[in-house]
Design goal:
The chain is mostly helical and 123 residues long. Helices cover 63% and strands 0% of the residues. It folds into 2 domains: 73 residues, no CATH class; 49 residues. One of its GO terms (cellular component) is mitochondrial nucleoid.
């Protein structure tokens, strides 16, 4: 039975796309790592809790097949920011997030430097 579970998870990993723009933070690559960790011995792995394993698989399949997106369709293709899905994808790429963090860090450094000048000098 563990062999069947292992094959099902492998098939899901093959179908799940990997987004190269989110390296290190992509759900597809994380899933592959977790499956490799959970099934270290491949088909010979003994599953400690088969019910939890099956429930996890079914949950991942629902995410992969957009079950809830199709069951509860949205009226608009935007979110609270007003950005479309494609614009959000561009914003959350790893490169863009690094740039944003650098900007935040430099702003914080500027503020800190201003306050540092006003602090009394310790002797």
């Amino acid at each position: 039975m563990a062999a069947t579970r292992y094959r099902r998870f492998l098939k899901l990993c093959e179908e799940w796309p990997v987004d190269a723009s989110k390296w290190g933070r992509d759900l597809g690559s994380h899933l592959r790592g977790r499956v490799a960790q959970a099934f270290r011995e491949g088909e010979n792995t003994q599953v400690a809790n088969p019910e939890d394993c099956d429930q996890m698989y079914e949950s991942l399949v629902r995410i992969h097949t957009n079950y809830h997106k199709n069951k509860y369709p949205r009226l608009n293709d935007t979110n609270f920011t007003g950005l479309t899905m494609e614009e959000c994808r561009i914003v959350i790429t790893t490169d863009n997030l690094k740039d944003v963090m650098e900007i935040k860090t430099s702003k914080w450094k500027n503020v800190w430097e201003k306050f540092k000048e006003k602090l009394p000098k310790r002797t």
